[in-house]
UniProtKB/TrEMBL annotation:
Domain Acetophenone carboxylase-like C-terminal: 592-755
GO cellular component, one term: cytosol
Domain Hydantoinase/oxoprolinase N-terminal: 88-269
Species per Swiss-Prot/TrEMBL record: Chloropicon primus
Family affiliation: Belongs to the oxoprolinase family.
GO biological process, one term: glutathione metabolic process
Name used for this protein in its record: Hydantoinase/oxoprolinase
Length: 1379
C-alpha cells in the first residue's frame, strides 16, 4: 500500500493540506462486511466462548495486571478472522479521559483512565495512551488506528470560546440570525436571555451583505452575485483581522453556485481565512437554522482545527502509530481532514460514541430494541435504538446552548439528572431533585470535598445502596456520616424521616429520568415495554433497574465496563458521511429524473470523500432515505429509498410506506392527502475493523464477597434487606442470582433491587430481570399523599401534556400551528382546574383551556347533554370560555371506572373559519359575533367513539382551505385523545384517591408560591393607563384613541386587578372576551413578572397560580363585552392590556419589569390557488414586537411579546409554497429607545405578491409609543405601507379590512421599538459605542441622547472620548437637576 498521507497537516490559506510525515503506515483497513452478525447469536452460543485471555486462554505476561493492582483488562474479545488491527479508543470526559485498547487478532482488550486536562485535552489523550502501552507492554508504534471522542467543539460553544467571526449574506437579510424565529426561549420570563441575541456568534458590525438572489423551486438566479461586493467584504474582514468567515445566502440549498463563487473570491482576497458556506455544511431549507449552523462551524473552526492538528502532531512525536479518526455526531468516524473542514459535525462526539457502544452491547445480548441510559454526575443522556439502528434526530429540533444546529445527529436527549443532582425544598414547599448539581467539586456531601447539600449519591449511601469503602473499586471512600447529615437536614424541612427522605430523593430523580425516556419514546411512536434498557456512565447502572420498572421495561443490560462504554463505542464505529438535498416534490407531480440526478451527484460527492480516506467505492455501503410529509405539515418522517435507479413504481411504494409510517407514529394516515418529498438523504459508510465479542476473564468466581443492610421500598413500605456485595469479576457465569445485590467495580456500581434477578454472561454483560418492578398492578391507595408521590404524579402529568404538544405540532398542516406554534394543550381536573400544560404551547392558547371546559359544561347542561366515554367536543364560543372564534378547542372527557375524572384539551388557531374575508385575522369590520365565522358551541364531532359525519361535511362546505383546516383539527383530536388515554392510565396506575390527592398538593403549591410573591410587594394601589389606536380612520371619536386602564390593589398575599375606566365595548371586533383573553392576559403577565422562570426556575402553570388574583372589569367595556359584540380581533388589544398591567406593577416591582413593549401585528395573506382558482391559499403571519429595556438588560429585539409566544415562518418555506417573495427581513436602525438599558428594536419585513391576491391586517401601536420607564425614553411606533404594482405607496392604518393586491404589489411592515429603561446618561459608554458600531444608532444619536462623544469615523472605526463624554454628561446632568 502507499505511504499514508494526512499524518501531519499544515494550514495554508485555510485549506487543510496533507503531507507525509516520514513514516510508513497502512491506510485504514476496510472489510466489506462483518465476520459475524452478533444480533443473530443465541444466548446458548454466547455461553460457549473462546479462552479467557488470548487464543490459548492465558494472557501474555505483558498484559497481565500487576499483583494487587487495579483490574483494567476488559473481558477478552474473541479474535477475528479478518485482517487484524490494534485499535485505541479515547473518550474525553469532564473529569476523566477513558482509554480502551483492543487487538483484533488476539482478542485482548485493555482499559485505562487518566484525569482530563481541560487546558489542553490532547495532553490527557496522549498520557492515557502512553500509560496504557507502558503498563501492559504494548508497542505503541504498532497501533493502527486511534479513534477519539472529543468535547473541544462542544466546550468552545458552551464556554463562548470561539473566534471572532464574519458573515457575508444576501442583501436585505442581515439580521436573520439575530431575529431567529422571533420566539422567546421561555414563556414566563421578562428577564430571560435570548441566546442568538445576547450571545451572538457574529456581531452585527461583522455581518456584511451583497446583492444576489436565488429563488425556488429550482434555484433559479433572480439576481447575479455582486462579485465586487464580495471582494470588498473580504478586504474589510482582512483589515479587521477576522479570519473566520461564513457565507450564507438564501436558497443556497437549492443552488449553491453563489455561495461557492463567493468562497472562491474570499479565498483569493484572503487566503488564510477559514471559510464556511451554509449549503456546504447544512444543505437544507430553513434559513435561520442553516445560517446559524454555518456560523457555529465558523465560530469553532480554527479552535477545533488547531486541537486536531496538535493531537496529530503529538501522536507522531510520541511515536504512536495509526491514523487518527474523530467521532462525529452522526455516529460515524471521520478523518481530521473532514473535521477541520466541518468541525460542527463533532459537537456530540462523546455521547454519540456511547450510543454506538450501547448498540454493540445489544448485539452481544441479542437485543435489537434498546433505550440507552447514560447517567453521569450532572446529566443523563437518553437515546433509542430500534431494530438494531439508532434513531437520528429531526434536524429542526436539535440545538446546543440554545442555538439551532442543523446537521445529522444521533437523537440524544439530555436532562439535568445525575448522581450529583441536588435535592431541596423550594420556596413553595415542593420536594425537588435537580437540575442543579453539586458537580465534581464540591460534589456530594459524602465526597468530603465541602459539599453540604444532599444529592442522589448521598441518598444511595444513606440507604446502604453504595458501599462506602468499595467505591471506584476501593480507590475512594465515601463519608456516610456527611451523607446522613445532609439528608437529615432536608428530611427535617419536609417532615420526613431520614430514610424516607433519602428514598424520596431517589424516587423523584428516577421518575424525572423515566418521564424523559417516556417523552422521547412517545415522540418516536415507540412502546418502551418492547425495549431493553442499556445502563452505562458512572451512574446509569445504579438507577437503571428502578427506572426500568417505572417504564414497564423488563430487562436491563449492563456492559462489562459501563463507565468506559463511550470509549469502547469508538471501537465499533465506521467511517460515515451524510449529505442532503431539498426537493419539495409531491406525489402528484414527481420528477423522478431529478431525484436520480441528485442521488447520483450525492453519491459522487461522498465517494470522493471516502476515496480521500482510503476507502474504495466498492467497499462502501450506501443508504438512501427521504424526508416526507403530507403537504402543509411541518414535520417530516423518514422513509427508506432503494439503491439504483428510482422508478415511478419505486415512488409508488415509497408513498405507500409513508402512509404506513404516519399511521405507526400518529395512529392514522390521510390516504387522499398530497404527499410532499422534502429532502432526500444519502449516507455512505466505509466499514472498518472493530472490537470483537468479549469473553469473561478466567479466575476464581467465588460469588458474593460479603453482605450489607440496604433499604428499599417494596409494596409501598420501606423494608430492610440483607444485600449481597459482589466484585464484578467474581460473579459466577450463567447462573441466575437474586437481588438485592450491589456489584462493585472500578468505574461504577450496579444495583439489583429486591425481587429482581440477574445473570452474568460469558461476554461480560449482566442482564437484570426487572419484571417484578413493572407496574402490572394498580398502586396501593393512600390516605394522604406524601411529598414524594405528589412530585412523581406531578411530573407524569406534565409529561403527558408535553407529549400532547409534540403530537399536534408534528401532525398539523398549517404554518400557523406547525411553524408558529399557535396552539396549546392541557390537562384539566373533573372540576375544571388546569393541572398541566405543554411547554411548546403559546400561553394564550393553553391558558384558556379551563374556560373552554367551563363553557362547554354550561352549554351541555342547558341542553340536557352529558359527557360520555369516547366523546370529542369542539368549541370556539368566545362568550363560553374560548379566547376568540379562530381558536378552536377539542376537548376529550376522561373516564376511569365509569366516572368522569378529568379532561384532555387542545386548542389551536385556524387559518379560516368561514368569516367575511379569507383568513381568520383582519376581520376588523365585523359588526357582531355572527359576522366572524362559524360558531361551534360544544359540538360533539365524535360521539361515543363514532364520528359525527354531518359536522365534518359542514366544515368542508363552509371553510376556505378546508383540507388544511380539517388536517389541523385531526391533529388536535389525536393529541387530545392521546392525552386522555395517558391521563386514564395515570388513574389506573395510582388510583383515584392518590391522583386527586396529588392535584391538591400541586394546586396548593402553585397558590403558595404566588401568594408568597405577592406578599413581597408593598401593600398599596398602583394604576396605569395606556391607549390603543382603535380605528384611526373612523369619523366617530368613540372608535379611536381607546384607553386601557388598570388598577392593582395589593393587600397581603392577595391582588385585585380592576379595569374600571377602560373604554366601552364597540360594534367592532377589538373587544376582548373576559374569559379566555382578559383573565389570561392578566394572570400570565403577573406570573411572568413575579415568578419569572429565569429567576425562580420552573413553576407549573395551573389554576393554583390564579387563586390569589381577583379580576374585575365593568360589563360592557372592551375588557368585558356583552354578547353579541364581536371579538375576533382581540389579540393586539389583549397584549396591550398585558403591557398596561406591567406598567402598573412596575411601580411596585421596578426591578422585575421591562419598559413598554412594542405590540404585535397579524397579517393574513390570501389569494386564489394557481392550480385551482376555485380554492384559496391563506397564509397568516404574526409580525413581532419588541421588549422595552429591563433592569440590567437591554430589551429583546424583534420578538413575540408577553402573553403570546409564537414563531415566524421561514422565508424559504413561505416562498417555496406560496406566491409571495420576502424582499427584506432586518432590524430597524436608529430606532432604539434611549435608556440606561435601551429598548429592543423592531423589524422591517417586506413582501411582494407574485400573483394577484389580497391581505387583511389587525394590529395596534401605529399612534401610541411604548412607554419609557425610570427616565428612559419612549419607544417608536409601528407602520405599514402598501405599494402597488406601479409604485404608488399608501400608508396604512394598524387595522385593514381585506384589501386586494395585484401581482407586484408590496407590503412593508415596520415593527415597533420598545421603551427605554433608566436615564440614558447612565448607560455604559462602551455599550453606546457597540450600538454605534453595530449600526443600531448613529454617532450623532450617541452624543445627543446618551452624552457619549465618539472620535473617528464609520470607515475607520470609532472610540469613546472619555474626557469629552464625562464633561458633556456632567453638563447634561446639571441641566436636568436644574429643571
Amino acid at each position: 500500500m502507499a505511504a499514508r498521507l494526512a499524518v501531519r497537516r499544515t494550514r495554508t490559506g485555510g485549506t487543510v493540506q496533507a503531507r507525509t510525515a516520514g513514516r510508513q503506515a497502512v491506510a485504514p483497513r476496510v472489510v466489506a462486511k462483518r465476520t459475524q452478525n452478533k444480533a443473530e447469536k443465541t444466548r446458548a452460543s454466547r455461553v460457549v466462548s473462546c479462552a479467557a485471555f488470548g487464543r490459548k486462554g492465558k494472557a501474555p505476561a505483558s498484559v497481565r495486571p500487576k499483583a494487587g493492582g487495579r483490574r483494567d483488562v476488559l473481558p477478552v474479545c474473541k479474535a477475528t478472522d479478518s485482517k487484524a488491527e490494534k485499535l485505541v479508543g479515547v473518550d474525553v470526559g469532564g473529569t476523566f479521559t477513558d482509554v480502551v485498547y483492543t487487538d483484533t487478532a488476539t482478542g485482548i482488550t485493555l482499559t485505562h483512565k487518566v484525569p482530563t486536562t481541560p487546558d489542553n485535552p490532547s495532553r490527557g489523550v496522549l498520557t492515557g495512551i502512553l500509560e496504557l502501552c507502558e503498563r501492559h507492554g504494548i508497542d505503541k508504534g504498532e497501533i493502527t488506528r486511534v479513534l477519539h471522542g472529543t468535547t473541544t467543539a462542544t466546550n468552545a460553544i458552551l464556554e463562548q470560546d470561539g473566534c471572532v467571526t464574519g458573515m457575508i449574506t444576501t442583501e436585505g437579510y442581515r439580521d436573520v440570525v439575530h431575529i431567529g424565529r422571533h420566539q422567546r426561549p421561555e414563556n414566563y420570563s421578562i428577564l430571560q436571555e435570548v441566546p442568538w441575541q445576547d450571545r451572538v456568534l457574529v456581531k452585527r458590525r461583522n455581518r456584511l451583505t451583497v446583492k444576489e438572489r436565488v429563488a425556488p423551486p429550482d434555484g433559479a438566479i433572480l439576481e447575479d452575485l455582486d462579485e465586487e461586493g464580495v471582494r470588498v467584504a473580504a478586504r474589510e474582514f482582512k483589515r479587521k483581522g477576522i479570519n473566520a468567515i461564513a457565507i450564507c445566502f438564501l436558497f443556497s440549498y437549492l443552488n449553491p453556485e453563489h455561495e461557492q463563487r463567493a468562497a472562491e473570491i474570499v479565498k483569493e482576497e484572503y487566503p488564510e481565512a477559514f471559510i464556511t458556506t451554509s449549503a456546504g455544511v447544512s444543505p437544507m431549507f430553513r434559513e435561520f437554522e442553516r445560517f446559524t449552523t454555518a456560523l457555529i462551524n465558523t465560530y469553532i473552526g480554527p479552535k477545533v482545527a488547531n486541537y486536531v492538528d496538535n493531537l496529530e502532531t503529538g501522536l507522531i512525536n510520541a511515536g504512536i502509530g495509526g491514523d487518527l479518526h474523530v467521532m462525529a455526531s452522526n455516529g460515524g468516524a471521520c478523518t481530521p481532514l473532514m473535521v477541520n473542514e466541518k468541525p460542527v459535525l463533532t459537537v456530540l462526539s462523546g455521547p454519540a460514541a456511547g450510543i454506538l457502544g450501547a448498540k454493540w452491547v445489544g448485539e452481544l445480548s441479542g437485543s435489537n430494541n434498546l433505550i440507552t441510559f447514560d447517567v453521569g454526575g450532572t446529566s443523563a443522556d437518553i437515546g433509542i435504538i430500534t431494530n438494531g439502528e439508532y434513531e437520528m434526530a429531526n434536524a429542526r429540533e436539535t440545538e446546543i446552548a440554545g442555538y439551532p444546529l442543523m446537521v445529522p445527529q444521533i437523537d440524544i436527549h439530555t436532562i439535568g439528572a445525575g448522581g450529583g443532582s441536588i435535592a431541596y425544598k423550594d420556596a413553595g414547599g415542593a420536594f425537588k431533585v435537580g437540575p442543579r448539581s453539586a458537580g465534581a467539586v464540591p460534589g456530594p456531601a459524602c465526597y468530603s470535598r465541602g459539599g453540604t447539600e444532599p444529592t442522589v449519591t448521598d441518598a444511595n449511601v444513606v440507604l446502604g445502596r453504595l458501599v462506602p469503602d468499595n467505591f471506584l473499586g476501593g480507590e475512594m471512600s465515601l463519608d456516610l456520616e456527611s451523607s446522613k447529615v445532609a439528608v437529615s437536614n432536608l428530611a427535617e424541612e419536609l417532615g420526613l424521616s431520614m430514610e424516607e427522605c433519602a428514598e424520596g430523593i431517589i424516587t423523584i430523580a428516577n421518575a424525572n429520568m423515566a418521564n424523559a425516556v417516556s417523552s422521547r419514546t412517545v415522540q418516536k411512536g415507540v412502546d418502551p415495554r418492547e425495549y431493553a434498557l442499556v445502563a452505562f456512565g458512572g451512574g446509569g447502572s445504579m438507577q437503571a433497574a428502578e427506572v426500568a420498572g417505572m417504564l414497564n421495561v423488563s430487562k436491563v443490560l449492563v456492559p462489562p465496563y459501563p463507565g468506559l462504554l463511550s470509549a469502547a463505542g469508538l471501537l465499533v464505529s465506521d467511517l460515515k458521511y451524510d449529505t442532503t438535498r431539498t426537493e419539495f416534490q409531491t406525489n402528484n407531480n414527481v420528477d423522478v429524473a431529478k431525484i436520480n440526478r441528485d442521488f447520483q451527484s450525492m453519491e459522487d460527492e461522498l465517494s470522493a470523500q471516502l476515496q480521500k480516506d482510503g476507502v474504495d467505492k466498492k467497499d462502501a455501503v450506501f443508504t438512501r432515505f427521504g424526508d416526507l410529509r403530507y403537504a402543509g405539515q411541518g414535520y417530516e418522517l423518514g422513509v427508506s429509498f432503494p439503491l439504483g435507479e428510482i422508478t415511478e413504481a419505486n415512488m409508488h411504494e415509497i408513498w405507500e410506506e409513508f402512509h404506513k409510517a404516519h399511521e405507526r407514529e400518529f395512529g392514522h394516515y390521510f390516504r387522499d392527502s398530497t404527499i410532499e418529498l422534502v429532502n432526500i438523504k444519502l449516507t455512505a459508510v466505509g466499514i472498518t475493523e472493530k472490537i470483537q465479542e468479549p469473553t469473561y476473564p478466567e479466575g476464581k468466581q467465588e460469588g458474593a464477597l460479603s453482605t450489607c443492610t440496604s433499604l428499599f421500598r417494596v409494596n409501598g413500605k420501606m423494608e430492610s434487606f440483607e444485600t449481597a456485595i459482589y466484585d464484578r469479576w467474581s460473579i459466577p457465569v450463567d447462573q441466575e442470582l437474586e437481588g438485592p445485590a450491589i456489584i462493585c467495580q472500578k468505574d461504577t456500581t450496579t444495583l439489583v433491587p429486591p425481587n429482581c434477578t440477574f445473570k452474568n454472561f460469558s461476554n461480560g454483560c449482566i442482564e437484570i430481570d426487572t419484571t417484578s418492578l413493572c407496574n402490572t398492578d394498580d398502586m396501593a391507595e393512600v390516605d394522604k399523599v406524601d411529598p414524594v408521590t405528589a412530585a412523581v404524579v406531578r411530573g407524569e402529568l406534565e409529561n403527558i401534556a408535553v407529549e400532547m404538544g409534540y403530537k399536534v405540532e408534528r401532525m398539523a398542516y398549517s404554518s400557523i400551528i406547525r411553524e408558529s406554534r399557535d396552539f396549546g394543550t392541557a390537562l384539566v381536573s373533573a372540576n375544571g382546574d388546569q393541572l398541566a400544560e405543554s411547554k411548546q404551547s403559546t400561553p394564550l392558547q393553553s391558558g384558556p383551556i379551563p374556560g373552554y371546559i367551563r363553557g362547554i359544561r354550561k352549554i351541555m347542561e342547558e341542553r340536557g347533554e352529558v359527557f360520555e366515554e369516547g366523546d370529542v367536543i369542539m368549541h370556539n364560543d368566545p362568550y363560553g370560555g374560548a379566547s376568540h372564534g379562530p381558536d378552536i378547542g377539542f376537548i376529550v372527557p376522561v373516564f376511569y371506572e365509569g366516572n368522569l375524572v378529568g379532561f384532555s384539551g387542545c386548542t389551536a388557531h385556524h387559518l379560516d373559519i368561514g368569516s367575511l374575508t379569507p383568513g381568520s385575522c383582519g376581520i376588523v369590520e365585523a359588526v357582531d359575533a355572527y359576522a366572524e365565522g362559524l360558531q361551534f358551541k360544544a359540538i360533539k364531532v365524535i360521539s361515543r367513539g363514532e364520528k359525527n359525519i354531518p359536522v365534518w361535511h359542514m366544515l368542508e362546505d363552509n371553510i376556505r382551505t378546508s383540507d388544511m383546516v380539517k388536517g389541523d383539527m385531526e391533529a388536535q383530536i389525536a393529541a387530545a385523545q392521546q392525552g386522555a388515554l395517558k391521563f386514564r392510565d395515570l388513574f389506573k396506575k395510582w388510583g383515584t384517591q392518590t391522583v386527586e390527592g396529588s392535584y391538591g398538593d400541586l394546586l396548593s403549591y402553585s397558590e403558595r408560591v404566588m401568594r408568597q410573591a405577592i406578599s413581597e410587594l408593598p401593600d398599596g394601589e398602583y394604576s396605569a393607563t395606556t391607549y390603543i389606536d382603535g380605528y384611526q380612520y373612523a369619523d366617530e371619536p368613540r372608535y379611536k384613541d381607546l384607553p386601557i386602564c388598570v388598577t392593582l390593589r395589593v393587600k397581603g398575599d392577595e391582588m385585585e386587578v380592576d379595569l374600571t375606566g377602560t373604554a366601552k365595548q364597540l360594534d367592532k371586533p377589538i373587544n376582548m372576551p373576559f374569559s379566555g383573553t382578559v383573565d389570561c392576559a392578566i394572570w400570565l403577565t403577573i406570573r411572568s413578572i413575579l415568578l419569572d422562570s429565569t429567576i425562580h426556575g420552573f413553576i407549573p402553570q395551573n389554576t393554583g397560580l390564579i387563586e390569589p388574583i381577583k379580576i374585575y372589569a365593568p360589563p360592557g367595556c372592551l375588557a368585558n363585552p356583552i354578547f353579541p359584540a364581536p371579538t375576533i380581533a382581540r389579540f393586539c388589544p389583549g397584549n396591550q392590556l398585558a403591557d398596561t398591567v406591567m406598567k402598573a406593577l412596575a411601580q411596585a416591582a421596578p426591578e422585575k419589569v421591562s419598559a413598554g413593549i412594542g405590540n404585535l401585528k397579524v397579517i393574513s395573506f390570501s389569494g386564489a390557488r394557481p392550480d385551482d382558482p376555485s380554492q384559496y391559499w391563506v397564509h397568516m403571519e404574526i409580525f413581532e414586537g419588541a421588549y422595552g429595556g429591563r433592569n440590567g438588560m437591554d430589551g429583546m429585539d424583534a420578538i413575540d411579546t408577553l402573553y403570546a409566544n409564537t414563531r415566524n415562518n421561514p422565508i424559504e418555506d413561505i416562498e417555496s409554497h406560496l406566491p409571495l417573495r420576502v424582499n427584506k427581513y432586518e432590524l430597524r436602525e436608529n430606532a432604539a429607545a434611549p435608556g440606561q438599558w435601551r429598548g429592543g428594536l423592531g423589524s422591517v419585513r417586506e413582501f411582494t405578491y407574485l400573483a394577484d391576491g389580497g391581505a387583511s391586517v389587525e394590529g395596534e401601536g401605529h399612534k401610541y409609543k411604548p412607554w419609557g420607564f425610570d427616565g428612559g425614553s419612549d419607544g417608536e411606533t409601528a407602520s405599514l405601507q402598501l405599494t402597488n404594482a406601479v409604485g404608488s405607496t399608501e400608508d396604512m392604518y394598524s387595522k385593514m379590512s381585506y384589501k386586494p393586491a395585484e401581482k407586484g404589489s408590496k407590503f412593508t411592515a415596520v415593527g415597533p421599538a420598545g421603551g427605554g429603561y433608566g436615564n440614558p446618561l447612565l448607560r455604559d459608554p462602551r455599550k453606546v459605542l457597540d450600538d454605534v458600531l453595530d449600526e443600531y444608532i448613529t454617532s450623532e444619536t450617541a452624543e445627543e441622547q446618551y452624552g457619549v462623544v465618539l472620535v473617528g469615523s464609520k470607515s475607520e472605526g470609532y472610540t469613546v472620548d472619555e474626557g469629552a463624554t464625562a464633561e458633556l454628561r456632567a453638563k447634561r446632568g446639571e441641566a436636568v437637576n436644574a429643571v
